[in-house]
Amino acid sequence: MKMKKILIPCLAIGLIALQACDKGFVELNTDPTKTTNAYPQQFLANALMKSVEYNMIRNRNLNNELMQVTVDVGDGDGKVFRYDFRRNWADYLWNGHFTNMANYRDMYLKALEPINYSRAYQAVALIGQTWAYSILTDTYGDIPYSQATLGRDSLILEPRFDNQKDIYINMIAKLDSANTLLRLSPSTELIDIEADLVYKGDKTKWRKFCNSLLLRLLLRIAHKPEMAEYVTKMQEMFTTNASNYPIMTSNADAAILRWSGIGAFVSPYSLLRVQDFRAISLASFFVDFLRDSNDPRMDIALYNTLYGTTGSSNNRWGISPVSGNYVGIPSGYSPNTGERPRQSYFYSSDQTAAVTLQTEPMTGMMMNYAEVEFIKAELALKGLINGDPKTFFYSGAQNSITQWMPGWTKSIQQHLSESDIDWDDNDSFEDKMERIHKQKYFALFLVDMQQWFEYRRTGYPKLPKGDGLKNNGEMPARMYYPVYVQSSNPTNYRNAVALQGPDEINTKVWWQKP
User: Fold this and answer.
1) Residue 463: CB atoms within 10 Å
2) H helices within 185-202, ranges in order?
3) Per-residue pLDDT tens for 329-364?
4) Which of 410, 300, 303, 417 is nearest to 354 (CA)?
């Protein structure tokens, strides 16, 4: 009993002491000079940088291999250039973009709060979010969309998969909203220059990117009969409602995250060892066309000789010759055929150059002006907008080169004519489509997986098929869903497969189907 009498007062004293120690703890450990709330701009730089990083890696090891830009030589299994896919490749882009989507959502929600209210940040968040979602749905097909970022706030841990048609309708609506928000944004509503890694706070250029991205999405679904109203909308963007939909009008409007190389803003390509960056050879389809057409983007040394400039001050692709010749490896070659020696690769032939493609600031390409011109060329060729497709074709080809070679002043007509690849009004519709998309293919160099998406939509440019191709020589139509989704979200995974088709690489996504 005595022990109990002594123990109880001691416990009471201890509790009182602990409470006394806790008093003022939060106040003591809170910096009164700093806010505990986040601002919209604090999400912007990281959101953009991460999105571009994920796209660049997948561009390098998936898009470029599928679209015969490069060949990762070898006779082993799991070679993308042979369409020999592995299911675990699906995780990277899916995990990266879905995780990063929270940054765009938080930016948007913060910009809605009265203390942070900003139409500009709301718009940029919608543009970034839509751009990333478009890449996800064009890669996988039906994906979690309307419930994708509600796990933290609404505890929806197994989001449903929305069908691609509904996703496209909503993405178009979001870009429309972003365009309106930017139009209504007052001049006093600024975007932080340091946080905006793409346009340095220029709202006019963000608006042009928004509507150019809208054109990309509208073109992708224009052939679907049920989307006829969006074809009309696209036509209005060039005629009766053009003033409300400004689009890119020069290379200065291109959406590019330019890597500064300072601090965290370092190109993911520069993190690779030089020998690893060189290890992947160029494909014949890519390098042969550039070589045979005397394309100035091939070699900075040639460019310097012709135009009297220095390598350190010019953007370039820097393709390395082999014994003075530019040669590539046929993509899809059969194993054990002796076609494996290293050929030309992406690296400046001038090893003293201050900048190579590995450290090139412009590799963070999101969308460029040349793509917009080629979109217009195709629309004009199909009679969907007014104008001469040849004019848009020339503009696209010219700006595709000068985006990288701003000092190049040669007439594009002369360049194409000398290379026997000029536009011919007497060509068939198919031949004109091939010309447009062959040039667009090079304009889309480094632009995430747009080459692959456009090939799946149009069948252009016509790619040679090697004897070693797997998958019956059929270009994969999508990526697998990540394997873990089957166990982490089983019901919605099964529903998606039941509606879209088997979780296989040959199952066409909605806009690929008739």
Assistant:
1) 17
2) none
3) 899 999 877 555 556 667 544 445 555 788 889 999
4) 300
